[in-house]
């Protein structure tokens, strides 16, 4: 809101949102279109990357079934269309007394500085920096595993996969042990979905002429819990596990990883899983820089502790949402889970709460609504549970489940682009797919 300063110059309320992912970009877009457009509030989005891709698509980018260029959004354009400012850079420090954040310099690929260190003043700050993979300090994980935290990491994995196939195909002789094996650590939804995508991709490579003997390829999922999808009901986990085994995917449950080497993975039971390509998808934590951020309260996973209003526990002017926030799950034990649906709900909720705060109205409490969880095994099946208001949790499968699964992304696009442009994008995506290979081949 514009208020008159002592000298008579109007002071625009400065809102800084850090992190333009699932939650942060939705919030910036909603606020920009409502308050930024009228010039009532100056909204700045600070984001470490120049483009946005919806994070739950990253396993498809990694498998090569989705070309990231097809689905990425240019922040600069989105900001211009939605009346907020976008500034490229990685936040690294906070000064709560001065109400100022500092953003590290940005360098190009040659190591030349293209943007110097900058400071941004805020009246309201929203932290939406998401999460990163948690390696739990296990030796070798950082240096030998791929992660699926960023588009770049997913693309690096895809490049390594295709290189291994091309090399094996060109050599035309028996491969080194484990050369084409992919071991995925973590049997949650990400690991399971990636395994199914990789199975599809290995068949597509063969169809496009990159022939390798099926016996030379092995996909394994290593999980410390007694079964896959331990956070979901067994009636979803069991058929999923059955289907993966039918596809020939090895499932190693009750196996805790103790070390990762270049050649493979060692587990606590003494087992060694040979694999040249290893993916770590075994849980998340908030980024490390939050751990000691100007005295804000954090939990052991470095998430910022927030009240049900989404204000941080020690500062009314700082909010947090999505994976980086430890938000009480009202009516349940524990905190709201790190999911896209939670980040999307919180962005919608915070849009209203921030408007209430600016209008001097009381803030509301956020109630997480769990709509259920779906697991997509790509072209093979989709299965999950939906939460009905009266019926409680019920199982869905097949194309209905697939449609519900896809609808979460469509809802994200509708917030960012509106229904008409989303429909156009969906059509152009379908056309693109009908004239291009089903998998990225370079
Ligand atoms: C492969 C995969 C599949 C998934 N599938 C599902 C699914 O099917 N359903 C589901 O509900 N959830 C799924 N998730 C989880 C879901 O993606 C996250 O819960 C959701 O994206 C969290 O949203 P967010 O806004 O909190 O963070 P994010 O979407 O992760 O966005 C955080 C943003 O902050 C930026 N950032 C980070 N640090 C800084 C900094 N210091 N300065 C500036 N910018 C910074 C990042 O670049 C990023 O753009 C999946 C996750 C992965 C990795």
Commentary on this structure:
This protein folds into two domains: 2-131 and 286-358, FAD/NAD(P)-binding domain; 141-283, FAD/NAD(P)-binding domain (3-Layer(bba) Sandwich), CATH 3.50.50.60. Helix 1 (22-36) runs parallel beside helix 9. The chain has helices at residues 22-36, 58-63, 68-71, 75-82, 141-144, 151-171, 189-207, 234-246, 340-358, 398-435; strands spanning 2-4, 10-18, 41-47, 51-52, 73-74, 85-88, 91-95, 100-103, 106-107, 113-115, 118-121, 124-127, 132-133, 146-147, 182-185, 219-222, 250-252, 257-260, 264-267, 272-274, 277-280, 284-285, 304-305, 311-312, 315-320, 325-326, 372-376, 382-388, 392-397. Helices cover 33% and strands 25% of the residues. The strands form nine sheets. Strands 1, 2, 3, 6, 12, 24 and 25 form a seven-stranded mixed beta sheet that branches. The protein contains ten helices and 29 strands. With 442 residues, the chain is of the alpha/beta class. The protein is globular. Bound molecules: flavin-adenine dinucleotide. Flavin-adenine dinucleotide binds next to helix 1, strand 3, helix 2, helix 7 and helix 9.
